[in-house]
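Subgroup meeting minutes
Present: P.N., E.W., G.H.
Scribe: E.W.

1. P.N. recapped why we're keeping a running log of single-chain structure predictions: easier to compare across weeks, and new members can see raw inputs and outputs side by side.
2. G.H. added today's entry (134 aa).
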Amino acid sequence: FGTFLAGAIGRKVDTLPRLTAMRTALIIQNSSVAAAAILIVVAFQLQITFYCDETLFFVFMTLVTLLGIVSTLSSSATKMIIERDWIVVLSKHDTDLLSVINAMMRRIDQVCFLLGPILAGAFMTALGTTWLLV
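Output recorded in log:
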């Protein structure tokens, strides 16, 4: 969803003052994560499982998923807000340097997205199944 809505998020971020946009994005992100966690705890407390009540389970999991999407989108907004101001300051308003820094930031993001899960899996495998519970 982030890919499809990135343009709309970017336009909204550009219309708001940076501090207001940052506060709003952080409040939305943290609230959606907290709400998803509360829903999961409630589901465990009520012992809602797929076998117990399929409809209620589906509703809970759909809400948790939607809240996760909202959290990811607001995280994207936060990232945009930081990058738009921070990278411009680093480049000292030099457009050539700005494009080089933007390209480097994209490469760093892509490498992290690629290597993060691989390294996490290798780390978990090396530690064994006992440490996965921690």
